[in-house]
Amino acid sequence: MIKNPSFRDGKVDELILFFKKEPKNDLYKVFTTHFRVKFYAYDIRNKKPGKLLCYEQIILKPDNTTQKINIDLKELHIKYPRTGICVGIETFNPEKRNNSKTMYLTSPNLRYTHDEESLTWKSYKGKEWSKSDRKLKSKVFGKVHYKYANPMIQMKVQFRK
Questions:
Q1: How many CB atoms lie within 10 A of CB 77?
Q2: What is the mean pLDDT of the chain?
Q3: What is the pTM of this model?
Q4: Disulfide check for 88: which of 31, 38, 49, 123 has CB 3.0–4.6 Å away?
C-alpha cells in the first residue's frame, strides 16, 4: 500500500519498480518471469486492497539483471485515491514448459525494503487478501533486527489543484 500523504485526489503518472538478478544456482533451474501490474484503491474499512482502478493489461518482462524500470502510465489515467493505492504485482510465465517435479526459481526478483510496518498483502489464485507478515533480518551496529519486507516501489503522482 502506498499512502496518500496529501489526502488529495490525484493521477498516477509513473510507476518505478526495482528488480535484482537471481544469482546462478546449480541446484535449481532458473526461469525468466513476466510481471502483471494492477492498481487497487485502498479499502480503509476492511484494511486491504479494494476496488480495481485500471482494467488495462500492464505486462512487464524485465531482463534477468539488477535494474530499475520506469513505467509511463499517463495515458491510462489511473486514479490515486485519498485513501491510498495498492499496487498488485503478479508473477507468471506465459510460455509452455514441460512439467517438472523438481524445484525451480524465477528471476528477476523484486527488491524489498526493511520497514517498521507491513504494507503488503497477498492473494493466491483469486483467494481473499491476507496481510503479509514476511520479515527480513538485518544487522545494525552488530545487533540483529527484523523488519517487514515491502516491495521497493516508487510512484510519480499528479495531484489536483
A1: 12
A2: 88
A3: 0.86
A4: 38
